[in-house]
Amino acid sequence: YLDTLDDAAWGAASEAKPKFVSRSDPAAQWTGAMKGHAFFAYATNYLIDLDNAVIVDVEASRAIRQAEVGAARTMIERTQESFGLYPERLAADSAYGSAEMLGWLVHERGIEPHIPVFDKSERRDGTFERADFTYDHKHDLYTCPGGKELRSRQITYKNERPLVDEDGMVRCRASKLDCDACALKPRCCPNAPARKIPRSIHEGARDMARDIAKTEAYVTSRHQRKKVEMLFAHLKRILRLDRLRLRGPNGARDEFHLAAAAQNLRKLAKLIPPPMPKPA
User: Fold this and answer.
1) Helix (H) / strand (E) containing 30
2) pTM for this prediction
3) Element (H, E) at 100
4) Mean pLDDT value of segment 131-144
5) According to the model, what pLDDT value does residue 30 have?
6) How far is CA 140 from CA 65, 143, 195, 199, 203, in A?
7) I want to staple 67 with a disulfide (CB 3.0 to 4.6 A). Which of 62, 146, 156, 266 is the partner?
């Protein structure tokens, strides 16, 4: 039980302490994901074949985004080891569009991410957003709407400082002299001496996901994602799995695997042709 809590889908998923802890089942997550009263719950994660809507793997996790992302990695690796299945693309919602997940898919697995990018760079105060700045891949710098450059390092320090912080972000900063003399400063950085833009070390994978989102293949993947949501709807409304009978991560894993097997058997029963009627 304790070894299970150290897995990426459980205790190692997040360092944040939960608001409440269940006395009867401490591994359950206090969540309000259903847009109603919060309750203790587990999450089931499916990896399906989009062509036939067949569940190829299932993983139980805590009901938080970080745990679900870790479960997706586990299922992709396990499916490749067990069945030799290597997906060309992965279709998922924006919860899986973090920079770390996209970087893992593109750089380590070579899988096309048909996933909306999890991005919080949009601004609502009327100032310039990160999309208004042009990035130069060759020289590794941004160019602002005023034509000035934002570099990861403007000056040379005597003691070299790391460019990447603990969150995997590189801060590209403009020169204070350029910002002070710029007429666009009220629309760029009115409350700061100079503008800075954070750039993830996985920004290349994020750019690839943004480019894929503009294609027809992405539109097809977005429609095919409904097959996954349909399985979750059947799980609750037809199989009536809205409450677990077993406690703990292992109990939740057992129930989710049995439910996925039942759903695959229902799918298999529909695919098998009925026997031909015998002549009288």
Assistant:
1) strand 29-31
2) 0.80
3) helix 99-103
4) 87
5) 84
6) 31, 10, 16, 11, 12
7) 62
